[in-house]
Amino acid sequence: MATAVIPKVFKNYINGEWVESRSNKAFENRNPANTDELIGMFPSATEEDVNAAVDAAKEAYNRWRLIPAPKRAEILFRAAEMLLERKEDLARDMTSEMGKILVETRGDVQEAIDMTYYMAGEGRRQFGQTTPSELRDKFAMSVRQPIGVCAMITPWNFPMAIPSWKIMPALICGNTVVFKPASDTPLSAYNLVQVLAEAGVPRGVVNILTGGGREVGAPLMSHPDVSLVSFTGSTEVGRRVSEACAPSFKHCQLEMGGKNIIIVMDDANLDLAIDGAIWGGFGTTGQRCTAASRVTVHKKVYKEFVERFAARAKSLKVGDGLDPTTEMGPCINESQLQTVMEYVQIGINEGAKLVAGGHRLESGPYARGWFHEPTIFADCDPKMRIAQEEIFGPVVCVIPCNDLEHALEVANDVVYGLSASIYTRDVNKAFQAMRDIYTGIVYVNAPTIGAETHLPFGGTKQTGNGHREAGVAAIDFYSEWKTLYVDFSDRLQRAQIDTSSFARPQD
To answer: Which one of 173, 289, 331, 397 is the catalytic residue?
Structure first.
């Protein structure tokens, strides 16, 4: 007689302890490639849990901010070493709950490793300025100071990399954290927090709550003791985050949607450009804010590009990400799959030419997962909805262009501005594109994905609100400047008034 498998049950982490939610309710975390596989049960936190976590973070802040940054860095360095040691297991967990192929989840974990090492280094590099004063016998300098309790709200597509972009710079600057991961990928978030706890992060400094946006996210970002909110997700939700932060002037960082483009000029290396379009369009099943969901191709090479691009897309093996031969995994959930299918129908109705894919995969090995074919539309008008709106799935629009100026016009004519790419062998065209494309990131002869942790990451227009993640830009967001003046003249000096004092003899 078969015995039912008891699912693994996880808890919230508040004030250094793994605790049940006040709701006594939980939600399922299932494998998107095989929904029969129950990965675990995670707590459905409530506003009461939020209050407890924020209280713990607020109390811990008073101690954590006084620990010297190089000592905070030692903890992060230990965490990076532990992530490195556990990389394969962490990647396999991530593929099981998120679906992207194992080589990609290894990269996701590696990005968390890189960010943790990098921010550990920033423990000795939080430089300020020293500068001459305009007055005699006066010393002037600036230093960084932490901000307080930080709320982190992260998406499911990079369930360890993106949290590391937020948590590690916040910690090294002396802030404390309450972390709400996406409900589709709580296991990877749990694994990251477990590593930080084992590395020696003091109680209350990092707290994690799982649950819905309404139950956890909304009360967290409006909590009066939260000083900063960092959010990555859709533009629609990001707007609500901004509105919630505005009344109390919380620091707010928004990283939202994208409708990124690859420009292929007539002098491009087409083999390389097609490789880039495949990786940019179908890596992570197109579920990246930096995915190349648009490709505009010079009319001289347009026909050849479309034919070869479509043939490559049709040859991609779709399946379980743990299978080493799989090249593209499933969509994250049924809702996202339905969104992809709806946009495919929109593209057909708009008159775009379907040259590859276009269908849900639901028989045989796909029967218990959320799979969709890699899909390409050709002959797209840049004003079509499928060429304007973020789909967040394996759908790419190909748009013909007449020249570089036309391509740049197409590139900039969307509400987003995250990433863009140009394939050309002409250095003049490359530099013109780098100057004139209005995005936060531009690549030359590479796809629109592949950010590195020591450089700023973020976008323009409705992609973001101006703050950047990663690199020194993250240190700027998670700290505030304090300017210090020390007057050692032993008399009153008045800045901007005592301008003639240097002409007089000094006692």
So the answer is: 289
Q: How far apart are CA 209 and CA 11, in angstroms?
A: 8
Q: Would you list the DSSP string of 135-147?
A: STTEEEEEEEE--
Q: What's the CA gap between 281 and 264, in Å, rounded?
A: 14
DSSP conformation class of 214:
I
- Which residues pair with residue 360 across a beta bridge? 372
On the 0-12 / 13-18 / 19+ scale of CB atoms within 10 A, 256 is buried
* Catalytically annotated residue among 104, 255, 327, 373: 255
State the Cα–Cα distance between residues 424 and 64, nearest whole angstrom: 50
Q: Is 401 a catalytic residue?
A: no
Residues in the chain: 507
Look up residue 246 and give its amino acid. A
Element (H, E) at 71: helix 69-85
Q: How far apart are CA 19 and CA 411, in angstroms?
A: 49
| C-alpha–C-alpha distance, residues 328 and 288, integer Å | 13
Each residue's pLDDT tens digit, 443-500: 999 999 999 999 999 999 999 999 999 999 999 999 999 999 999 999 999 988 866 5
Ramachandran sector of residue 70 (left: φ over 0; alpha: ψ -120 to 50; beta: rest): alpha
Q: Map residue 248 onto helix, strand or coil.
A: coil
Answer for the pair 276, 421: CB distance below 8 angstroms, yes or no: yes
Report CA torsion sign: 244, 249, 255, 258. positive
Q: How far from chain centre, in Å, is Cα 178?
A: 17
For residues 385 and 381, what is the distance between their CA atoms, to the nearest angstrom? 9
Domains of the chain, with CATH numbers? 12-256+464-482 (3.40.605.10), 261-444 (3.40.309.10)
Task: Name the percent of the chain in helix, strand, coil, to the closest 5.
Answer: 40, 20, 40
Q: Is 331 a catalytic residue?
A: no
Alpha helices in 283-327 (DSSP H): 302-315
The CA R_g of the chain, rounded to the nearest whole Å, is 25
Cα–Cα distance between 83 and 75 in angstroms, integer? 12
Q: What is the residue whose two structure tokens read 């539309």?
A: 377
Single-letter residue type at 428: N
Q: At 503, is the pLDDT very low, low, confident or very high (cuts 50, 70, 90)?
A: very low
